[in-house]
Amino acid sequence: MDRTFDAMTAALEAGGLVAALKVLNDRVVQRYSAVYRLTPDRRLENVAFVDKLAMPYPEHLLAVPYGMSFCQFTFADGEFRTSDSSMDRRLEGHPYKGLVNSYHAVSIVGDNGDITGSICHFDLDAAPLADADFKLLRSAARALSAYLPPSTSVTT
Prior knowledge:
This protein has helices spanning 2-15, 17-25, 71-77, 131-144, and strands at 32-38, 43-51, 63-65, 79-82, 102-109, 115-123. With 156 residues, it is an alpha+beta fold. It is globular.
């Protein structure tokens, strides 16, 4: 993990959020990695995105209402993991249950302790994320906080 974290921070400093996400995405099975921030109108706005297949970001995920996002679960507990959302009882009634099947995320917390966004790996296919990669995601969230554009914080 240390080499990947070092590579990620070097990429972050040299190329910003997308470059850092690419380093993280290269080591996981999930197709997508993204950073979201909370906007003043309580939507989750994508500020960085990586797709292993280099396809354009799905337009319906560029800005997601807070109540329709999986980020709401991440913000409630600081992190959220589901390897198969179709089987996850915590997501009963959620519109993306069974669509975004693999979702692993950590809150990004600002210097004042408020949640300002999230970083996640996700996929339409069900897939676990290794514990070591989730630990790396936690470390990345701390490192990325200074690079997240200004946002509205969430009180949970």
